[in-house]
User: Which sequence fits this backbone?
């Protein structure tokens, strides 16, 4: 691979800016190297943790697979997308870094009081190469060499045949299930493997898509990272033929007919899956979500004095059909009707468009991390912020004698935070501080990246990436 180096990036020493075209010399590595000279405030590592810094430290422990990267694409055109919007590196096998991960790493390492570690159940040989190359890509080789000793990496399968996973005792697993509603494996990613005697866990965060790895008594340290798959991007493209989009590439929320405003219907509306319509003989209820608060709101359209719009609703969305002679001239078209309803909702600060949450998970993770940091720096702890975002208290049943508190996982519920947009938008703000050109992934910019024309050499490089994928899962988990 003459033009691609060991990090999956073309070799260059020129410090240049962001690019969106692979047909120029501005390629992966060159567009990232600018970070070292432009955004890192520390000319050396002396002011960072592990040296003279004496303040409180906030530590974030990342899983790797399905949180930071995927390991196989649906087709070769997706590799074009990752080369432009994410990153591609080789750590024994090819890894496709999700969009936003590079910017998230950069955002964390410019924080003086933040430490980053990694804990993957995969092989140590893969994990160490992956982390080294990821950090070099994000931070630049010179800065990486100054901070690399502060980055710990734990693995499920170590080179000597042992493991960093800790076997959970039966009692711990029972309590975890009874008190927190978590079913788990017997092998856990225990944070005590990292800490020394002078530290506690209140300002440690474990970020993973698989909650079964959460160790007993470390539930409050958990940040649920919604599992991300490369197929999410191709699914978005496939579904786009059934959707409408605004001028910014955001999906227009579709209308959906409901029998009543049940709690499930309200959850679907708040999550941006639909704008609810409930039709009866006297009125129509339009259920929508408040734009900022993401709470359920209703607009009631009475039949009286709204005959035209009501007739249009019944014709286009109702189960009852009006006689043709009654509606042929007076009923507005479906397009005009939708535009009118969208306009009313927007005028009342309602939500009419939705983002592709599954393709922007890194924005969510970033938003939660930095909101937790903001809260902890104001006098709390990271766990004070995280726990109520991940668990909710439940009442004991009448036949239970014990009065101890019990919880259930909020992150598995219909109203989980990762199903709302609020933290995605805050995460985008954070990522744009290091890369002003960063944007939400939409079907429009995904298709544009996949359709990019490449040189013959670049296509050869892509074929090599594709052929080097880990199909059997020998080094990743």
Assistant:
């Amino acid at each position: 691979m003459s033009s691609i180096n060991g990090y999956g990036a073309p070799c260059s020493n020129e410090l240049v800016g962001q690019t969106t075209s692979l047909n120029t010399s501005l390629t992966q590595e060159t567009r990232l190297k600018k970070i070292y000279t432009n955004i890192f405030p520390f000319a050396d590592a002396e002011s960072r943790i592990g040296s003279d810094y004496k303040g409180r430290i906030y530590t974030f422990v990342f899983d790797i697979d399905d949180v930071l990267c995927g390991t196989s694409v649906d087709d070769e055109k997706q590799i074009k997308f990752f080369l432009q919007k994410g990153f591609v590196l080789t750590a024994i096998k090819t890894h496709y870094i999700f969009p936003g991960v590079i910017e998230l790493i950069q955002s964390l390492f410019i924080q003086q009081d933040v430490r980053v570690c990694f804990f993957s159940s995969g092989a140590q040989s893969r994990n160490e190469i992956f982390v080294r190359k990821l950090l070099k890509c994000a931070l630049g080789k010179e800065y990486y060499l100054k901070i690399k000793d502060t980055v710990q990496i734990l693995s499920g399968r170590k080179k000597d045949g042992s493991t960093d996973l800790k076997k959970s005792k039966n009692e711990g697993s029972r309590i975890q299930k009874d008190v927190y509603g978590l079913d788990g494996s017997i092998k856990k990613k225990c944070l005590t493997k990292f800490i020394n005697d002078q530290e506690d866990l209140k300002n440690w965060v474990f970020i993973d898509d698989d909650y079964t790895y959460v160790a007993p008594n470390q539930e409050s340290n958990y940040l649920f990272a919604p599992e991300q798959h490369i197929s999410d991007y191709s699914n978005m493209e496939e579904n786009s033929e059934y959707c409408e989009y605004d001028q910014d590439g955001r999906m227009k929320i579709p209308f959906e007919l409901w029998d009543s405003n049940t709690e499930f219907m309200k959850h679907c509306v708040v999550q941006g899956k639909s704008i609810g319509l409930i039709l009866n003989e006297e009125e129509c209820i339009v259920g929508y979500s408040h734009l900022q608060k993401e709470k359920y709101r209703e607009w009631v359209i009475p039949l009286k004095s709204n005959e035209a719009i009501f007739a249009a609703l019944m014709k286009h969305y109702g189960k009852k059909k009006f006689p043709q002679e009654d509606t042929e001239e007076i009923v507005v078209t479906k397009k005009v009707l939708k535009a009118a309803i969208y306009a009313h909702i927007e005028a009342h600060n309602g939500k009419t468009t939705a983002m592709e949450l599954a393709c922007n998970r890194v924005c969510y993770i970033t938003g939660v991390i930095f909101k937790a940091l903001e809260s902890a720096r104001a006098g709390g702890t990271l766990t004070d912020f995280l726990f109520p975002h991940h668990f909710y208290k439940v009442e004991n049943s009448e036949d239970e004698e014990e009065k101890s508190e019990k919880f259930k996982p909020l992150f598995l519920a219909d109203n989980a935070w990762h199903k709302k947009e609020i933290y995605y938008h805050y995460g985008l703000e954070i990522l744009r501080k290091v890369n002003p050109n960063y944007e939400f992934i939409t079907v429009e910019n995904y298709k544009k990246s996949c359709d990019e024309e490449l040189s013959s050499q670049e296509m050869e490089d892509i074929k090599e990436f594709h052929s080097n994928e880990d199909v059997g899962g020998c080094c990743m988990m």
